[in-house]
Amino acid sequence: MSAHAVTASTARTSVRLADGREIIYFDDEPGQDRSTPDRRDLPPYAPAAELRYDVLHGEEVLVAAHRQNRTYQPAPGECPLCPSHGDHLSEIPAADYDVVSFENRFPSLGGSAGGRCEVLCFTSYHDGSFAALPPERLATVGRAWADRTAALAKRPDVEYVFLFENRGAAIGATLPHPHGQIYAFPYVPPTPRRMLAAAERFLEEHGRCLMCEVVAREAAGPRVVAETDGFLAYVPEAARWPYEVYVAPRVCVPDLPALDAARRDELMRLYADVLRRFDALYEHPTPYMAYWYQAPARTKRDAAHLCARVYTPQRTADKLKFLATSETGGGAYINDVLPEAAAARLREL
Ligand SMILES: [Zn+2]
């Protein structure tokens, strides 16, 4: 049996792009040939991110000046995330794919900063969306996310794997093709760090997981949006955004790799259900930000409880909430939408 057949049998194939970056194909079904070479002539890959420390705020800042030249809203037919065909040579050498994850050509990490940035495409269909993915594809995306979380967390220069999606030009997505990103940080970023500190304090005082407590309190309450046997989707009591939902397991699970495949599929279906509700809010697809809080690679794992957070700054069909000075300067959020009303609306959609 050839080496290629061995990797293909697991529906996961890792190959190299022309500049040496890794690309991993995750297929819905095993047995695909993913050996198509990258025919582009690319300059050598040289990530140049730099990690600096803001002493006044006590937080890290990444400086990645080379990213100014990255692809921005390409013309139709020039999409770097569509499969390659004819003269159009994209980031994905194959003529079609299911899910791929590859090293970002314009990374915010790597270089002297350490860590790694990946781009993860949910579908080869340019005009698709996460919310419209069929169940078998949701399962493949969940498998790819778990794979990347576990593999990147093993690197000595990675302390936190952050999976996210920015959808919509209105909130700064530079490519319309359905995709997410993975930032494998060389440190635990400030927001999860603060949340883990709160969870650790609660654990110390009460001997229980904070998120387990919150999920149990929200269950059957007025802010539930959708649920399954193992997971709850709810609007937080102190939501910061007009529409904001957490999706979390009812019991302690540190990260996606800790779920078995059946539970992971169940979670992915609920997560997609939440995104469909966001898309149904307005006449046009809702811009949203979605991301996963997972346990750090090797610290504070006993205080961590996996959850996804999805929100949109779209407060009416034609109005976006912009972060005001109280929010960016003071960290003090002001929400114009009653969380219980937002939950009722999302529940009905
Ligand atoms: Zn595309």
Automatic annotation (TrEMBL):
Keyword Zinc: yes
Pathway: Carbohydrate metabolism; galactose metabolism
EC number assigned by the record: 2.7.7.12
Keywords: Carbohydrate metabolism, Galactose metabolism, Metal-binding, Nucleotidyltransferase, Transferase, Zinc
One Pfam short name: GalP_UDP_tr_C
Protein family membership: Belongs to the galactose-1-phosphate uridylyltransferase type 1 family.
Source taxonomy: Bacteria, Bacillati, Actinomycetota, Actinomycetes, Streptosporangiales
Name the record gives this protein: Galactose-1-phosphate uridylyltransferase
GO molecular function terms attached to this record: nucleotidyltransferase activity
Cofactor: Zn(2+)
Record carries keyword Ribosomal protein: no
Galactose-1-phosphate uridyl transferase C-terminal domain sequence ranges: 200-349
PANTHER family, per the entry: GALACTOSE-1-PHOSPHATE URIDYLYLTRANSFERASE (PTHR11943)
Domain of life: Bacteria
Gene (name only): galT_1
The Galactose-1-phosphate uridyl transferase N-terminal domain, residue ranges: 113-189
Catalytic activity: alpha-D-galactose 1-phosphate + UDP-alpha-D-glucose = alpha-D-glucose 1-phosphate + UDP-alpha-D-galactose
